[in-house]
Design a protein that fits this description.
This protein is mainly α. The chain has 6 helices and 2 strands; from the N terminus they run ααααββαα. It has one domain: Orthogonal Bundle (Arc Repressor Mutant, subunit A). A two-stranded antiparallel ribbon has the order 1-2. Strand 1 and strand 2 form a beta hairpin.
Length: 153
C-alpha cells in the first residue's frame, strides 16, 4: 500500500535525512563535517557563549555538545575561559584555527543554500514562512521533550 500522506514526524525525519545527504555531498572537501560546521558556525555567529546555550541553539543534547567541545578542544578549534559575569561558568569561543576552518566551509555551504533557495522559490514557498513554521516545530518539539522528561520548560 503506497504512503499517500506523511505526517509531521515522518516529514521531519525525511527532511533531516535529505539535508544530511545534501550537506555531506556538498561539504565533502571541507575541513569540518556538516555536524561540526553546524556547531562552529553557531558559535561563530553567537560569539563567546556557555555550552548550554550553544546546545540550545543547535538543538543538541548537552552531553552531545560536551563531546563536540571536548573533541574541538583537542583539535584546538575552541577554547574555554571563565565567564567574567559568573566565575563558576565557562564561555566557549572559536580559536583562530576554528574560525579559519569554519570560514573555509562557507563556499560549499553557500552552494547548498543557494540551490535550496532556488528550488524553494520554484516550489512557490516563501522562505520566511518556512522559517516561521520550522521555528514553531522546534519550539513544539522542545516543549514535548520537556513534558516527556517530566520537566517544565
Amino acid at each position: 500500500m503506497p504512503l499517500e500522506f506523511r505526517g509531521p514526524f515522518l516529514l521531519l525525519f525525511a527532511v533531516d535525512s535529505q539535508l544530511g545527504t545534501l550537506l555531506q555531498t556538498t561539504m565533502r572537501e571541507c575541513p569540518l563535517t556538516p555536524e561540526e560546521f553546524a556547531v562552529t558556525s553557531a558559535l561563530n555567529l553567537s560569539g563567546p557563549v556557555r555550552a548550554g546555550e550553544l546546545a540550545r541553539l543547535t538543538g543538541l543534547r548537552p552531553t552531545s555538545m560536551s563531546n563536540y567541545l571536548r573533541r574541538f578542544e583537542e583539535r584546538s578549534i575552541v577554547r574555554r575561559r571563565t565567564d567574567p559575569m559568573d566565575r563558576r561558568a565557562t564561555l566557549v569561543s572559536l580559536t583562530a584555527r576554528g574560525k579559519r576552518e569554519t570560514v573555509a566551509c562557507f563556499p560549499a555551504f553557500q552552494r547548498a543554500i543557494d540551490g535550496f533557495q532556488k528550488a524553494l522559490a520554484d516550489e512557490g514557498v516563501q522562505e520566511a514562512e518556512l522559517l516561521d513554521a520550522l521555528e514553531g516545530a522546534s519550539r513544539a518539539l522542545a516543549t514535548t521533550q520537556a513534558m516527556v522528561e517530566g520537566k517544565d520548560e
